[in-house]
Amino acid sequence: MLEQLNRAVEHIEGRLDERIEAADLARIAMTSEYHFRRMFSALAGMPLSEYIRRRRLTLAGAEVLAGERTLLDVAVRYGYASGEAFARAFRAMHGIGPGEARRTGAALRSQPRMSFRLVVEGSSSMRYRIVAKEEFRVVGKKARVPLVHEGVNPAIADFIRGIDQETVRRIAELSDQEPEGIVSVSDNLAEGRAEGTELDYYHAVVTGAAVPGDLDALVVPAGTWAVFENSGPFPQALQFLWRDVFTQWFPSNSYRSRPGPEILRTRLSPDVGEAEAELWIPVERAMS
User: Fold this and answer.
1) What Cα–Cα distance (Å) separates residue 249 from each residue in 2, 36, 42, 118, 185?
2) Cβ–Cβ under 8 Å, residues 203 and 141
3) Cα separation values, 179 from 78, 204, 237, 264, Å
4) With a threshold of 0.70, does the pTM exceed it?
5) CA pair distance 207, 5, nearest whole angstrom
6) Three-state SS for 161?
7) What is the pLDDT along the chain (288 residues), one digit of tens a residue?
8) Exposure string (b/e) for 189-222, b if CB count within 10 Å is 16 or more?
9) DSSP at 280
10) Is-contact 42 246, C-beta < 8 A?
């Protein structure tokens, strides 16, 4: 998988002054566009679109300083419809406008070209299993919250505190299949999962039962899931688990992610300092 990802990066590099389609990159990487975007974001630490933008502005910065083309020519070459749009993007990355950068020979920022490799650390193995599930429902309470990569998510914490205990009890009673009990469900995440982008969060159960009228529901089609287990400090261990799934497990296994909600079942220690977790990721067999 990493070899194919690096071939896709080669494709990006050769076409930074052309239109780049994510679907073409996914074909080069021999995977789905959905999985390609997810893998790239996890490994690169930024969305695919942001990486391409930064690489283009890096090359554009060199051309601005070289002074061989007009600023408008540089803007058009790297996909900007106007000098004003180019100037805004240039300033956002480099901290200075292109005209001033050319006049003063200012130092500019650079986005290095990326390449991916798998680093094996330690001798521990990830505990996982593959589960096929029929269609089910996620039933509970839903909120739209910002994504937080590290530490407790205050929006989620406030949302859960706002659900009265009687409602929590009624939700819990609907659980009738794996993963059992109250779970955290994330759906409708932004492409690159950038910090601060929003997602649908459910404090809910997985069930086949009828949905009470005062609760929110998400119908999940039948499919295959990879289920990962870990334990450790809360919430860091849970957040690191998601990262490790995409940076270590997927590149080494014959599965790819597919659209669908991610389900996290957490059991906290009495002092809330430690947690045991199951992370359910929707997957499908990768193309051979």
Assistant:
1) 12, 14, 12, 10, 21
2) yes
3) 48, 11, 19, 8
4) yes
5) 38
6) helix
7) 778 889 999 999 999 999 999 999 999 999 999 999 988 988 888 889 999 999 999 999 999 999 999 999 999 999 999 999 999 999 999 999 999 999 999 889 999 998 887 655 543 456 889 999 999 999 999 999 998 877 778 999 999 999 999 999 999 999 999 999 999 999 998 877 777 889 999 999 999 999 999 999 999 999 999 999 888 888 777 777 888 888 888 887 889 999 999 999 988 888 878 888 899 999 999 865
8) bebbbeeeeebbbbbbbbbeeebeeebebbebee
9) E
10) yes
Q: Which residue has the tokens 């999962």?
A: 193
Burial of 123 (0-12, 13-18, 19+ CB in 10 A): exposed
Backbone angles phi, psi at 239, to 5 degrees: -70, -35
Contact in structure between 206 and 183 (CB atoms under 8 Å): yes
Coil vs helix vs strand at 130: strand
Give me 177's structure tokens: 């299949």
Contact 102, 71 (CB under 8 A): yes
Structure tokens belonging to residue 39 = 């893998």
Is the torsion defined by CA of 63, 66, 68, 73 positive or negative?
positive
What is the SS3 assignment for 269? Answer: coil
The SS3 assignment for 131 reads: strand
**Is residue 140 exposed (0-12), middle (13-18) or buried (19+ Cβ within 10 Å)?**
buried
Strand, coil or helix: 156: helix
Judged by DSSP in three states, 138 sits in strand
